[in-house]
Amino acid sequence: MEDYTPELQEEDADGLFEHHSFIADKGQKPLRIDKWLMNKIENATRNKIQDAAKNGSIFVNDVPVKSNYKVKPEDVIAVRFEHPPHENLLVGEDLPLDIVYEDDQLLVVNKPAGMVVHPGHGNYSGTLINALIFHFDNLPNNSSDRPGLVHRIDKDTSGLLVIAKTEVAMAHLSAQFKAKTSEREYVAIVWGNMDEEEGTIEGNIGRHPKNRLQNTVYLDDDADKGKPAVTHYKVIERLGYVTLVSCKLETGRTHQIRVHMKHIGHTLFNDERYGGNLILKGTTFTKYKQFVDNCFKVLPRQALHAKTLGFVHPTTNKFMSFESDIPDDIQECIEKWRGYSKHME
């Protein structure tokens, strides 16, 4: 799935590099800037934000402010440091790669849950890109200067990714993803018993207006705020208060399946960012709560796996398709729900 990718930041006139920039909403109520930024910057603690303010790194309308500054409507807020963003300083790391396929043009990797695809705020090492640039020389950069990366999946989503090894492969594969001719199928456990056996979710996806760590669906009058997104889903198995579904992506927006499923009332199981780590369906019995908590322990992440990946090879022009087994944590969670749903019958 595509991610929001800021351009490489340049030094400003004061010799500082911009790491984050925001514009406060027109309806913004007065709120301390340290609290305000905690809702905007992933993995940022209040202490870190207060330290940045003490060091003169937080600017409002180009003026440094203290952490008790109250954010006002349409304030232009920036966080600037003397060093460039860490995500621009790529270092190779000897990390294991689960390579499903490789030739001179590309490779297909099976990413484990918990591994970030590319460095970003709060995750500067241990990423897939750190591993790739250690194991492979001269990987081509994509349009966001990320070596080898044609597409991405979220940190806590497991599954298949294709990596370009040459400029030809990067151009060819990127064009396929843009033209929506690549094939991607995910499996997910979602809350609730879905009404239909299959369906299509359409709705533009963009940043949530109040929580930058989430995306949301924009419809009708607000449709111009997001980018078009289409997800096709099909029920694989009904498991009582949850459903195992297959999702095929026509587009690749950030958190697309997670956002679309929440939009239709079927949030992904244990998707903390979107509220799926709460008991959204089921009974009030204590035993049921214990059962769900046990499922969360077995599967401590959103129940989403990139199972199938298909594309045309950039030089042979042959269609290639790859499949990855459902990982143990999701499989164990499915088994638990199977057992529980049989007792419900």
From TrEMBL:
InterPro entries the record matches: PsdUridine_synth_cat_dom_sf, PsdUridine_synth_RluA-like_CS, PsdUridine_synth_RluC/D, PsdUridine_synth_RsuA/RluA, RluA_PseudoU_synthase, S4_RNA-bd, S4_RNA-bd_sf
Keywords: Isomerase, RNA-binding
Signal peptide range in chain numbering: none
Catalytic activity: a uridine in RNA = a pseudouridine in RNA
Enzyme Commission number, as recorded: 5.4.99.-
Residue ranges annotated for the RNA-binding S4 domain, each copy included: 31-96
CDD domains per the UniProt record, alphabetical: PseudoU_synth_RluA_like, S4
Keyword Isomerase: yes
Protein task: Responsible for synthesis of pseudouridine from uracil.
Family: Belongs to the pseudouridine synthase RluA family.
UniProt name for this protein: Pseudouridine synthase
